[in-house]
Every structure is written in C-alpha cells, then in structure tokens.
Amino acid sequence: DTAVSQTPKYLVTQMGNDKSIKCEQNLGHDTMYWYKQDSKKFLKIMFSYNNKELIINETVPNRFSPKSPDKAHLNLHINSLELGDSAVYFCASSLGTVGGYTFGSGTRLTVV
Amino acid sequence: DAKTTQPNSMESNEEEPVHLPCNHSTISGTDYIHWYRQLPSQGPEYVIHGLTSNVNNRMASLAIAEDRKSSTLILHRATLRDAAVYYCILRDPGAQKLVFGQGTRLTINP
Fold first, then answer.
1. Mean pLDDT of B17-33
2. Which residues of A53-67 are buried (b: 16+ CB within 10 A; e: fewer)?
C-alpha cells in the first residue's frame, strides 16, 4: 500500500530515556514533516525536510533531532525525554510545498 | 500565516448534507483554501482545496465566496464515518508548512 508509515504506534518510556520514531513514505514525495499533537489536540509543525535538507525547525528543543537518510525517510530522535514530551507525533509528506500532505497514523508517546 | 475562523463544533444527522463554514477575511490573493479532516485516532487527511472557483471531488465540495473572504465545505450526504475534526487552512504556495487551527468538531447523529 502506498502510504506514510510510522513506527512504533505506541511508545511508553521513562523520563530521561532516549527514543526514536521512524517514518517512511513510498509516495515518491520529496518533502517530509514532523508534527506534534498535544493533549489539547493542537497540531503544530516541528520540522520539515526537503530532499534530505532541513527547511523548517520551529524552535523545537535541541533534544529533538530529526534525521533524513534519504528523501523517503525522516526519523525523529528524542534525548532525555520529559513528561511534557508526551503527545502524538505525526509524520507527513508532500510533493514540494504546494501539494496536499499525506499523514501517517501517528505515534503516541507517553513519558512516565 | 493568514488566519481562519471556524465554529468549534457542529452536529448533523446521517444522510443529510453538512455545510461547514470557514471565515478568512485576511486572505491574500495567492492563498489557496485547503480542507483537511482528522478522524478519531488517525492522522489528518486531505479533503479538498481551491483558489477561486468552486471545486468538487469524491469526498466533498468546496464553495468559495466571490470575495474569497469565506468558504464552505459541503458533505453532500453525511455518514457516521464523516465524524471528525475538519480544518480549514490558508496556504500560500510559497509557504513551506501547513498551519492547523482548532478546526470544527463534526458530530453525526444516526
């Protein structure tokens, strides 16, 4: 199936741990994004990569480090997890910055 | 980012049409009007977009006011599966991100 797939779907971890979320798209898109949806359900962009180059970093703490090994993958690594990092993280992709976005189904991160 | 205003929530009945309004009085000439929806426990899903003319696709229709200061997403025959949060978003072609507002939570009654 053509899609944006994220793994894992659920992630429960303790404060202070380091974790990664992986994202892959097979749509041939050249731009990928990470969004965060908090408990109040607001969706906020965190990062955007175009052809493996970072084009948006929305003042996200540097504990969050995105990595794009190729234009089909955008992974998110989070160091020293904090309680406030608990949220649903969505990966998305688009063709350029004009096309519609395709979102993954999300990764629910719970920090305890 | 130009702002949009949507009602917090709306309710409709199954198999009836639903008209979801969006006000965007500060829209610029190059802004496209995009609609996305987010079903429960899923990521947002593209619905439709337009610039000036009304648009139709298999999911919905988009009616754009002549002055472009408002638009309406029309679901012609709502089903229970259409219950979701609907987001109206203005997008400049040069913008490198999609900015989500609070959206309208649509409830469909059986």
1. 94
2. eeebeeebeeebebe
